[in-house]
Amino acid sequence: MERSAFSGQPSAAEGFGRINVGGRTLAYTEVSPPSPRANVLFLAWLGGSRLGWQSVVEAVGDEYRVFAPDHRDTGDSEAFTDPYLLADLADDAADFLRAVNAAPAFVVGLSMGGMVAQHLALRHPELVRGLVLVSTTPGGAASTPATERGRAALFLPADMEAQERARQALTLMTHQGFTEAHPEALDEAAAQAARHPMSAESFKRQFRAIRVHDVAADLARITVPTLVLHGEQDDLIPLPNAERLVAGVPDAELRVYPGTGHMPHLERPAEFLRDLRGFLEAHA
């Protein structure tokens, strides 16, 4: 059993598992009530593991069958040393959904996870019931780049200890003043980094995959219900990138959180859960 250090007891059954997907072993958390309304898949961001979604997974798991896998090469999943693309991570997610009999699913992805979700919807549309794209981008030449503060979060010193790296990255990714007001968020980030430290090589593999991400020309082929959630003050993936998503995906809806950075599920947890639950309820 796995549980966030700062969350309460979940009302649903919760478990940790490993499963063979395409010849690789992926680790995952599953939370589900006795009679779930639908399946929901959460995909993590650059440098993150499934633990980063834990509080949201526990909350949504009271009504839905929820999964949060570790991407290949991260967390408790099998080590992976070859280069890969985000499309490969999308294929992993597709194989995972089939293996756990959870398709079609609503797919919720933040940052890199949202990029993977876009590839998943394009490559395996039959497996996706709806998309919630958080703090993410379609990529491509028209992208609005990170601010100086956002770039600083990506390029912290390579020899920095994992827990300190997590603290500094979270401080730079969230809106100014957030971590000072919420030191428990820093403690949680450090604890997750201690549990799942990411090597510099793994981080580079993910970063290189992100650098070539570009589905801008294909967004019109995403026809499932889509909700785009973004922080107004996101320094890592600025707001115009979300606006490009909404302009490209038919009937996509945008919600912008004022005074919020790259991690709205941490910075605005009540509003984030309200919007996520509303979307799931409307389309389940």
From TrEMBL:
Pfam families the UniProt entry points to: Abhydrolase_1 (PF00561)
Alphabetized InterPro entries for the sequence: AB_hydrolase, AB_hydrolase_1, AB_hydrolase_fold, Epox_hydrolase-like
GO biological process per UniProt: glycerolipid catabolic process
Keywords: Hydrolase
Highest taxon above the source species: Bacteria
Chain segments annotated as transmembrane: none
Any one Gene Ontology molecular-function term assigned to this protein's record: triacylglycerol lipase activity
SUPFAM superfamilies associated with the record: alpha/beta-Hydrolases
Gene3D superfamilies per UniProt: alpha/beta hydrolase (3.40.50.1820)
Domain (AB hydrolase-1): residue spans on this chain: 46-269
Keyword Cell membrane: no
Keyword Hydrolase recorded: yes
Name of the molecule in the record: Alpha/beta hydrolase
